[in-house]
Amino acid sequence: MRMFILHTREKKALIIAFIYIFLMGIGMITVTKFNLSYQNPNMTNVLVFFELIMSIFTIIGYKKLNMRFLSNSFKYSNWLIPYIIFEIVIVSFFLVKSDFSLNFTQVLIVIITTFFVGFSEELMFRGILLHVFLEKRSIRYSIIASAIAFSLLHSVNVLGGEPFGAMLLQLVLTFVFGIVFSCLAILIRNIIPLMIYHFIWDMVIISGSLTNNNVSAIALFILIFQLIIAIPIVIYTIKKRST
Fold first, then answer.
1. CA gyration radius for the chain?
2. How far is CA 126 from CA 67, 69, 100, 199, 220, in A?
3. What is the DSSP letter of 123?
4. Distance separating alpha carbons of residues 117 and 124, to the nearest angstrom
5. pTM score above 0.85
6. How many C-beta atoms lie closer than 10 Å to residue 16's C-beta?
7. Contact predicate 200/90, CB 8 Å
8. Contact, 130 vs 185, CB < 8 A?
9. Where in this chain does the record put each CAAX prenyl protease 2/Lysostaphin resistance protein A-like domain (predicted)?
10. Mean pLDDT of the 55-63 span
11. What digits encode the pLDDT tens for the residues 36-54?
12. Residue 86 and residue 26: Cα distance in Å, rounded?
């Protein structure tokens, strides 16, 4: 039962995370008030303001908890190799195949919004939450707690018009994503590369319909890869941390 008793800093980190999720939920509800939905990239016209607020809120939470992990030096890991390759492929495909003249202003808004998304979500879930739990918890417990919270964040997408079935699938995928990225955060001791990857991933996916650029095949391959490596990377991370 002791593992379920939260320490003071853990409670504070969870409160910050739940407020963050609440703000996202309000953002999704607001999106629908403008006759937009989660499937429409124009939702970023509304969400950009919420993402800015959430980014500022997360920075405040980081400082309130007196955290220092953003200043940690980067440590290379071979587990980064596939993600570096994915990044190069998806960015190259995006730049070569996209027609930015179609919706330049809207694409710019998507870029700004997803920058805030990548920054604040990584700072919140692979940053604050993961690192606070690692202070007194096992690595396995900390990874799962962070991944669950990150997955729950995406449950509020249903408030923005995401079909319930699609939302459930997204919960599973983001849970796996959360596990893999928590492991990477521990292995490389730095979340800035994860922020960059997260930003580019969301930016390319959301802006695809605006630029006549279909990256669904590449995205599906990357998702399948993450499902495959989830268990091996957790095992490796736990063993690496214990040595």
1. 18
2. 13, 10, 32, 14, 23
3. I
4. 10
5. yes
6. 21
7. yes
8. yes
9. 105-204
10. 97
11. 999 999 999 999 999 999 9
12. 33
